[in-house]
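Researcher: Please predict.
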Amino acid sequence: MNDLIIGIVGMGMIGNSTAVLSTLHGLKTIVYLRNPQKAEGCLVEFDRMYQQMVDQQVISAEQAAHAKTYLNVVGRYEDMSKCTFIFEAIQETPEAKWNCFKAIELCCPDVKAIGSCSSSILPDELAEATPNLADRILVTHPFYPVHMVPYVELCVGENTSDEAIRYTREVLDALDRKPSVLKKPNPGFIGNYLQFALWAAALKLLEEGVCDPEDIDNCLAYSFCPRYTSIGMFEHFDNGGYQLNASTCDNVFPFLPRYEGAPDIVREKAESTDAWGAKSPSKRGFYDWNGVDPVEYAKRVNAPYWKFIDWEFPEQNCTW
């Protein structure tokens, strides 16, 4: 893919992490930033991510310095005109994404596919405002940190072309990602659909007074979750056989939750002015986060994913 130039629209956590991923693969990466005054702060965040990898001894300081030269932060869509693949990673509203796609349509004639990092908006809705791009728009939903978590979900629209799907797969292969392609759209795609099914069950246990949050987290950390970091769920149940599985389904499925939306136990925290999570004024959610070291917490979050960073890193500076 000698002609590949990555474009990224959006300099939030997903956009920044995606740029670190692509530059560490030695790919020219042009990041659009609507407010140029924020460029310095974003570059500081890039440096933090690169340095984190140096500190972890995943890459050398020299390799990090080479990777940074593949990054170009711009303030106009016109400066992305030569991009052949663009990741859209802006706020999660259709209107904002429609405006982004309109600008791409006007300014980026060479783009072969546009991967939206949307976590909930489906491709057909994304393409409504730019029918001329409908054949090139699809969802490429990652998990954060993008440069560490290799999984990506591809959800295509009714008009997404086979060529755009093929090119997107080639881009993700070049980035050493592990994509799953949905055969049809699904709310939450695959990852969030599964994750929130588990979350619903956990909340139901709290609501019914079965146990405390710490008990649920202990169960996840020390029982079946570690298993699924090395084998899959279908592998596990295939190996065990379905006689016991079927009887357990009969006994448990009738009691699984059927929420129509966020349950009261979540809604109350979301609408609280003081205790809506770790970053609330009180630093409380289901847990009390006062006194928790955020650096050490981040290390625990990232610990399972370092093993996935095993590709070749840039050995020389980029020539634009």
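Model: Residues 217 and 223 are 10 Å apart (CA to CA).
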